[in-house]
Amino acid sequence: MPASLSRKTQYLCVSIALAIVIAASCLGVMPNGMIGAFGFLIAVGGLLAYVGDRAPIFKDYLGGAPFLCIFGAAFLVYLQILPEDLSGTVKTFMKQGGFLNFYIASLISGSILGMDRRLLKQAGPRYVFPLVGGVICAMVLTGLVGLLLVYGFKQTLIFVCFPIIGGGMGAGAVPMSEIVSKISGSMDAKTVLSKFVPALAIGNVLAIVIAGLLNKLGQRFPKLTGNGVLMKGFEITEPAEKAYSIDALGVGLFASCIFFISGYLIHHFIPWIHGYALMIILVGVLKVSNVIPEAIENACSGWYQFVVKNFTPALLVGIGIAYTDLHEVFQTISPTFFILVATTVLSIVIASGYIGMKVGFYFIESALTSGLGMADMGGTGDVAVLSAAKRMELMPFMQISSRLGGALILVLVSFFAPLLLT
Question: For a 10 Å CB count at each end of the chain, is N or C smaller?
Fold first, then answer.
């Protein structure tokens, strides 16, 4: 709401908007398409974000607004409170409508082009060490814990560890299930995927919670964090909001769309690398090469800040409705299974943070990007994790973990699955 309005007027306007949305939803007259979905997501997201950032347990231990936006919305679906037609509208808007892609494209282009060029040059080559080191530690420790809990070393790696660190659902668990199915010869891909989903879902929940706790850790021990800067020796300089005109925001919107399209255009010729990853590489190369006019870089940075400030709660509610299946979580969770999932997530976070410190990164930022970036549920998880940690500017590094790191896991599964399934 505009800052010029009084607090009382803001509350009144929001209350009226919520009443309209609830009435239209209950009476089944909510418009289909973007208008109905956007109106619902923004209204509910604003309410849940307000409560989440102020409720003691949520804001102190569960990541605050992001956690409540995602799982509050997921419970509306689970308890069948949300009308099916409205739920379907939101799911269509998030998936076929591409709202998640739109959001991530804005974040990637704006955060990279607004980044210090020296940081990109120096941090990029070093990033591989905490990413690969964290993966190795997670595999070894989770496998050993599975052995101790009589769950089985092989079973733990294939059905717990690899799905969690595999890059999410579409680019990770789905192709991974095809690989495992072909190698096993005794399970079809659908059966394998059903075994992957619970680990992926519970791991994503833990990743969001741990992200909030990492933010608290950074507040308690400031030396462990760069407050959104990955590498030591750099600072973030926030440009004034007044610097961005309406024209500039339009340029930033258009540029982010073109960069996204370019990533998928290159993907057509290099199909083994995800379009997101190719977009990151393209924008990163353009940034380092200093070929983009400064005015366009500033426009993309301004559009990125606009999107983060205005659309994040709405997107998180959409993630809760369209991508978070609480039925899967509740049906599978058991003490042993939870311990194994927690071991995977915690080990990759701690190892990535520690190794990152050794190559000049901050512990918190390294643990978030190369650790939780591997352990969350791909693009949706990246947004939720960084929102809970209040470090959305780290999105490019998160996407490197989710996409390029996820591709690395698929290669590892192809190599290890024949050994583990025989």
Answer: C
Contacts 24+ apart (CB under 8 A), 124-129: 124/284, 126/231, 126/359, 126/360, 126/361, 127/369, 127/370, 127/397, 127/400, 129/355, 129/356, 129/358, 129/359
Q: At what angle do helices 65-78 and 294-322 cross, to 10 degrees?
A: 40
Regions in the chain scoring below 70 on pLDDT: 1-7, 10-11, 57-64, 168-172, 174-175, 186, 189-190, 193-194, 234-243, 274, 328-329, 332, 379-380, 422
DSSP state of 48: H
402 close to 168: Cβ distance less than 8 angstroms: yes
DSSP alpha helices (H): ranges in 270-324?
Answer: 275-289, 294-322
Domain parsing of the chain, residue ranges: 7-94, 99-420
pLDDT in tens, 133-186: 999 999 999 999 999 998 888 889 888 898 888 876 655 676 677 778 877 776
Distance CA 129, CA 285 (A): 21
Q: Are 276 and 260 in contact (CB under 8 A)?
A: no
Are 138 and 344 spatial neighbours (Cβ–Cβ below 8 Å)? yes
H and E: helices and strands count for the chain: 22, 0
- Say which residues have a Cβ less than 8 Å from residue 318's Cβ, sequence separation at least 6: 37, 41, 73, 90, 93, 94, 99, 100
Question: The tokens 């496998």 sit on which residue?
Answer: 143
The structure tokens listed for 226 are 């760069």
